[in-house]
Structures are given as structure tokens and as C-alpha cells.
Write a structure and sequence with these properties.
- The complex is a heterodimer of chains A (406) and B (287).
- With 406 residues, chain A is α/β, with parallel strands linked by helices.
- Chain A folds into 2 domains: 27-146 and 283-360, Response regulator (Rossmann fold); 149-276 and 363-392, Rossmann fold.
- In chain A, 43% of the residues lie in helices and 19% in strands.
- In chain A, the strands form 4 sheets. Chain A has a 5-stranded parallel sheet, with helices on both faces. In chain A, strands 7-6-8-9 form a 4-stranded parallel sheet, sandwiched between helices. In chain A, strands 10-14-15 form a 3-stranded antiparallel sheet.
- Chain B is mostly helical and 287 residues long.
- Chain B has one domain.
- Chain B is built from 11 helices and 2 strands, in the order H-H-H-H-E-E-H-H-H-H-H-H-H.
- Chain B has helices at residues 2-32, 39-57, 61-82, 92-114, 140-162, 164-174, 176-181, 186-208, 218-233, 238-258, 266-277; strands spanning 130-132, 137-139.
- In chain B, helix 1 runs parallel beside helix 5 (140-162) and helix 1 packs antiparallel against helix 8.
- The longest helix of chain B has 31 residues, at 2-32.
- The chains are: A alpha/beta (406), B mainly alpha (287).
- The interface between A and B is large, with 45 and 40 residues.
Chain lengths: 406, 287
């Protein structure tokens, strides 16, 4: 009895001590991966993003230094209302410090607002819309991997230069598709090309033949696919069937992921040009990470740039927290610290984060290999061009972000 | 005007899938009184079985067209024998919930192992290429889908409405006790009917494999539309489901041309209209 009372007293003392130090030295962090876990984007983000986050937690080595890192994940089903509800619950009830992945531009813009309102953190590695660092920019958000401006700039410019001066857009009818179409059309026009038509299809469409016939009838040299994931793979597959490419028109995948190429197979995907910021087979660092990642995936998939971004973004976040000596649970403060520090990791190399929340790194223009050029599974890309970090994204001079001082 | 012809034809192609799937649903509902929500998952299984046959067994598309419906049909019959059988005489809701649960489990298992972007399945060599019809470029494979599914639909209609076997079947749904008194094994007939409906779903799955990606969720996306088709055509009406299937494909195709943004809602708008005016569906009888 005596023994247990003293134990209780000791316990209380310890608890008090811990609470007293919490203000300066709180080392608890809760990470939330909010993504599409079951729908058409689940392969490019989804469970793989959670795996990447888990790897970042393990590789950070923070646990050994007394930090407690918790990870939760949820499925927003590509619906902004569901994403918003989860985000509010995560911040208010689960006390989540940072949101990772958040692919789907519609969901991302909704979560972006909540995160700002509640002073949390969003490192978006999945959504494409460049509005996240432009008109809708926030002191609590970093856009890590890519955006519609950069895709348009790299792929659009390269194709117009190669002679594709008339465009017809096949656009996914929501925030992302609209942003990608708008940014690409701007680049096309600026480079001397012309947009002669556009058709907007609902998200997650199985049959594209009607839309492809309209694109075919337009006689545009380039059919630009401003969609993603399953929508893009179905478009490409059916375009082959309707003889779009055989008829002399060229397909432009404005946003393609390695998981899409894998799903299509090289026979169908060969020759496509598109832009990404990460490929598993770039150097020693990317190969080592990707091999470890793939071993932990059920279908042994290599990481997409979205999943790689989760790993890289979290590592940088942990570095900032370590530099601050604890977790202040103050989103804007941590993001400011992250912007101060240069970024450096094995996946995206050296880079930086701009005042508007845009993470800068080079953009790579890839071409899909022919089946006979591929040496094995997942050996899919040839590098055909690199845009340096300082030119890849929207210049600050064109920015509408209020955080940018002019 | 040329564009319009092309859209009509494309609509007819999609209509073939609607017709095949809603036909299976109508057969199952008509004979078993079960609203088979697992239909989409079974359609997906048909496509996956075709994929496995080709990639693991080297069995080509033509044999898959025969084998996949049989394999998935047997799977369906096992479902009927082990689970659905016990729901005879209960409210429709039980069958709907059970089959919906089965669909979620089957899709979940496939998604767990194959991800969501799916697997490629090539068009068979004999059906590659296309014809220039003047107003459009028609891929030969798409033409084949329309013709083949039309034949299958009509054959099924003939089997159920015009043959001796079909007559037994229809009689068994009206009064199973009486038909059993004539020495006909009614439970076995019901199991076989479910197998037939499931086989039709699997057949549609094989037909769609070369057009769409073979994806775990391919059926989930389609099944809701197909249910709307069945409701519009009238639950349990064989010919009604075939005709509405093709007709709605065409209407949807036209919407994709005139107002693409509404193309995935037009079927449901029609469903609401039909339910308001004629709740039993266009060709349905009052229960």
C-alpha cells in the first residue's frame, strides 16, 4: 500500500514536470495524410502516401531523440465536403499538426482555407492547381511537388516549339482541370499557338469516345488532356482505338504519373511527353528510397512524385521542428521557419521555399520509352529536358499572392 | 450532322453494355426477386478473369469470352447456394444489403491486390484497326461489341420468353410450389438462373476489358447507371431492359455532344421523370 502511494506521488510529480516543460519543449507531433484511398487517384497518392510518411518518420531519427510522432490517414473520396469535415475534425479533435498529400485540387482548396483559419499546416504534394500559391496562397500552406503553371510551362512550351500550334482541350470538369486548361492555354497562346476548342467531361468518366470524336473533328494538331489518373489512362487507351494518333494528331498528357504509365503498359504509352519533378531512377538516392518504398507496397509499385513529395516534405518539416527545439503548435510560425531554411533531400535535391509557399526544384520533361528500350519493370522514362528551379514555376512578378511583397 | 451520326453510334456502343448488364439484373430480379447489387463487382470479375486467363494461362480473348462467364457464373452460383438462398421470401431490402456487402468485399479484395489504376488488356488482333464510315472512324472492336451484345441480348430474351425452359422458369416464379409438384427441381433452376444473370455480367466485363482499363472499381462506377436503366425500363422486364439499355446509351451520347457537363447526370434526370409519370417503369407491370 505504502509502495503504491509513493508510486502515485512520483507519477504526479513527473506529470507536473512534463506539463511545466510543455510550453517550450513539447515534442509531440501528429501527422495526417488526407488523400484518395480508394478512388481513381489512390495509386498515385493513397496508401502509398501513408507508407512514404511512415518512412519519413522512421528516417528522421526523431523518435530516438525523445519525439513522439503519430500518423493518421483518411480517405476524402475526392469530395471537398468530406475533406473539409475530416480536416475540421482532425484539427479540433485529433489535434493534427500537419496535413500531407491532399491530392485533388477541389479538396485541396477547401482544406487550404480551413488550415489557414485554424493556423494549422498544409504541405500539399498531390493537388495540381497553381491557385494554392497564387490568389489563394496562405501563410500556412506549402505547395511541394508540382503545379498546373509548371506543367503548362514545361510540356506546353515544348510541344508548341515542336510545331503543335493548334490545341483542343479535353478537360476534367472541376477546379484542377480548369486550372490546368487555363494555364496551358495561356502558354500556348504566348508561344504563338492557338486554342481551337475545348470539351469538359465529368470527373471519373469511363467512356471518352464522344469527346475524342469531337477532338478528332476539330482537326487540332494537339489534343491536350487536362485530366489525371484513371481519366487520363482511359483517354489515352481509347484515343489509340479511334486512331487519333494514327490520324496525325498528337496527344499531350499534361499531367501523367508513373502509376498511369504502368497501368497503360509501354505499348500504349510509348512516345508520350510529359513533365514530372521526380522519377525513381534518377540517381543513387532516388533509387535507394524507391526500392525500400516498393518493398513495402502491396503491389510492389514504385513511388509517384506525389508520394515522394510526402517523404521529402515531412523530412523538411521535421528539420524545422528540430531547429525550433520543440513543436510550438503554431502553423504559421513553423511554415515561416521552413521557408527560412533551404531544402535538401535525396529525392528532390537542393531547393527552397518561396514567400508564396511555392517549393522550388527543377522540372523534368520525360518521354515514355518504347517497349524494346525498357530493361525491366518500371523502367519507363527517358529524360529529354530539364527546366531549372528558378524558371520552372510562376515568376513572383506575375504573382497575385498577397504574401509577396512588391 | 455528320458529328451527330457519330455520336449516335457511339451512344449505341455504350448502350450495349447497359443492355447486357441491365438484362442480367432483370433476369435475376424477375426470377429470384433479388436486387443484385453485386452485379457491378461480378462484371469487374469477368474482366479480371479474362486478364488472368490471358496473362497466366495464355488463353486468348475468344476463349475468355466463353470461359470467363462460366467461371464467374459458377462463383455466382456458389454465392446463391451459400447465401442468397436463405433470403427467399424476405423483403427486397435484405437481398440488396447482402449483395451490396458482397460487392464491397469483392471490390476491396481486388483493390487491395491490384490498386486502382488497373491493368492493361489489349484488343485481340483480329479486331484491331477501324473502318472509315465517312462520318466517323469506327474502331472494328466497337462495332463487334454492338453486334455481339445485341445477339446475346436477343438470345436471352428468346430463351426466357419463347422456350420450354423459359416457360418453366416463369412459371416457377409465379408459383414455385405448383411447379415443384410437376416434378421440376425449382431450387436448382433458380441457382442456374442466377448463374446465367451473373454470366451475362461477366460477359459484359470481358467485352469491356479491351476498351477500358481492367480496374477493381470499373463496375462500381457503372452499376448505379445500370440500376437507373433498369428502373426506367421497368424492374424484371426482359425486353424493356434491353431496349432502354440501348436507348439510354444513345441519349447519353447525345448529351456528351450537346452539353457534356451533364452527361453523367442525364440518366438520373430521366429516371426521376419516369418515376414521376409511370412508377412501374416504361414497360413494367404493376406488382
Amino acid at each position: 500500500m505504502k509502495h503504491s502511494i509513493s508510486a502515485m506521488l512520483l507519477g504526479t510529480a513527473l506529470a507536473l514536470g512534463a506539463a511545466g516543460g510543455a510550453a517550450a519543449q513539447d515534442k509531440n507531433v501528429k501527422i495526417g495524410v488526407l488523400t484518395d484511398n480508394s478512388g481513381l487517384y489512390a495509386d498515385l497518392g493513397g496508401p502509398g502516401s501513408t507508407v512514404a510518411a511512415q518512412m519519413a518518420i522512421e528516417d528522421s531519427g526523431l523518435a530516438a531523440k525523445g519525439w513522439k510522432l503519430d500518423l493518421i490517414s483518411a480517405d476524402h473520396q475526392n469530395k471537398p465536403d468530406i475533406g473539409s469535415t475530416i480536416a475540421r475534425q482532425w484539427i479540433d479533435v485529433e489535434k493534427v499538426d500537419i496535413f500531407m498529400d491532399v491530392l485533388n485540387s477541389g479538396v485541396a482548396l477547401a482544406v487550404n482555407n480551413i488550415v489557414k483559419e485554424k493556423n494549422s499546416i498544409l504541405i500539399d504534394t498531390g493537388a495540381a492547381t497553381s491557385d494554392l500559391t497564387n490568389a489563394q496562397c496562405s501563410p500556412n500552406t506549402i505547395h511541394w511537388v508540382y503545379d498546373t503553371y509548371m506543367l503548362a510551362n514545361s510540356t506546353g512550351q515544348a510541344l508548341v516549339k515542336a510545331g503543335g500550334d493548334t490545341w483542343y482541350f479535353l478537360t476534367a470538369d472541376y477546379a484542377f482541370g480548369h486550372a490546368l486548361e487555363r494555364d496551358t492555354a495561356a502558354v500556348v497562346v504566348k508561344s504563338g499557338g492557338k486554342v481551337i476548342g475545348t470539351v469538359r467531361h465529368p470527373l471519373n468518366t469511363a467512356d471518352f469516345s464522344s469527346f475524342l470524336l469531337q477532338a478528332q473533328a476539330s482537326k487540332a494538331k494537339i489534343v491536350g488532356m487536362a485530366n489525371a489518373g484513371g481519366d487520363t489512362t482511359n483517354t489515352i487507351k481509347q484515343a489509340a482505338e479511334f486512331g487519333i494518333v494514327a490520324g496525325g494528331q498528337k496527344l499531350a498528357g499534361l499531367l501523367l504519373f508513373i502509376t498511369d504509365v504502368h497501368a497503360l503498359g509501354l505499348k500504349v504509352a510509348q512516345g508520350l511527353n510529359f513533365t514530372e519533378t521526380f522519377y525513381w531512377d534518377m540517381n543513387e538516392g532516388t533509387r535507394a528510397f524507391s526500392k525500400r518504398f516498393s518493398e513495402r507496397m502491396k503491389n510492389k509499385a514504385m513511388p509517384s512524385m506525389v508520394q515522394a513529395g510526402v517523404y521529402s516534405g515531412l523530412l523538411h518539416y521535421f528539420k524545422a521542428l528540430e531547429a525550433m527545439g520543440g513543436n510550438p503548435h503554431d502553423g504559421a510560425k513553423v511554415v515561416a521557419k521552413m521557408k527560412e531554411m533551404p531544402t535538401d533531400d535525396k529525392l528532390f535535391g537542393q531547393g527552397s521555399i518561396r514567400a508564396d509557399g511555392r517549393k522550388l526544384h527543377p522540372a523534368y520533361l520525360f518521354e515514355v520509352k518504347k517497349p524494346e528500350e525498357s530493361k525491366g519493370p518500371w523502367d519507363y522514362y527517358k529524360l529529354v529536358g530539364t527546366t531549372p528551379a528558378d524558371q520552372a514555376f510562376r515568376p513572383l512578378s506575375e504573382s497575385a499572392c498577397p504574401l509577396v511583397k512588391k | 450532322m455528320q458529328a451527330l451520326y457519330a455520336q449516335l453510334l457511339v451512344g449505341l456502343i455504350n448502350g450495349s453494355f447497359y443492355a447486357l448488364l441491365s438484362l442480367g439484373l432483370a433476369v435475376i430480379f424477375g426470377m429470384l426477386n433479388i436486387i443484385n447489387f453485386a452485379h457491378g463487382a461480378l462484371y469487374m470479375m469477368g474482366a479480371f478473369v479474362a486478364y488472368f486467363l490471358l496473362n497466366l494461362g495464355g488463353i486468348n480473348y475468344w476463349f475468355a469470352l466463353l470461359l470467363a462467364p462460366i467461371i464467374v457464373g459458377i462463383f455466382g452460383m456458389i454465392l446463391e447456394r451459400t447465401m442468397l438462398k436463405f433470403l427467399t421470401g424476405l423483403d427486397h431490402l435484405y437481398g440488396l444489403l447482402l449483395t451490396f456487402g458482397i460487392a464491397l468485399i469483392v471490390q476491396g479484395v481486388f483493390q487491395n491486390y491490384f490498386g486502382s489504376s488497373g491493368l492493361p488488356y489489349a484488343i485481340p488482333d483480329q479486331l484491331r484497326g477501324g473502318m472509315n464510315l465517312g462520318f466517323m472512324f469506327l474502331p472494328i472492336y466497337r462495332g463487334w461489341v454492338v453486334v455481339f451484345s445485341l445477339v446475346v441480348c436477343l438470345a436471352t430474351w428468346y430463351l426466357i420468353e419463347k422456350t420450354q425452359l423459359g416457360a418453366y422458369l416463369r412459371a416457377a416464379t409465379e408459383n414455385p410450389t405448383l411447379v415443384r409438384a410437376f416434378g421440376i427441381n425449382v431450387p436448382r433452376m433458380i441457382t442456374l438462373t442466377y448463374g446465367l444473370g451473373v454470366g451475362l455480367a461477366a460477359l459484359a466485363g470481358v467485352l469491356s476489358a479491351p476498351i477500358n482499363q481492367v480496374r477493381p472499381l470499373m463496375g462500381a462506377d457503372l452499376i448505379i447507371v445500370v440500376f437507373a436503366v433498369v428502373v426506367i425500363g421497368g424492374m424484371g422486364s426482359i425486353m424493356g431492359s434491353i431496349i432502354t439499355g440501348f436507348a439510354l446509351g444513345v441519349i447519353e451520347g447525345l448529351t456528351k455532344y450537346f452539353y457534356p457537363e451533364a452527361s453523367n447526370t442525364v440518366v438520373f434526370v430521366l429516371m426521376v421523370l419516369v418515376l414521376l409519370v409511370k412508377p412501374t417503369g416504361l414497360t413494367g407491370r404493376a406488382a
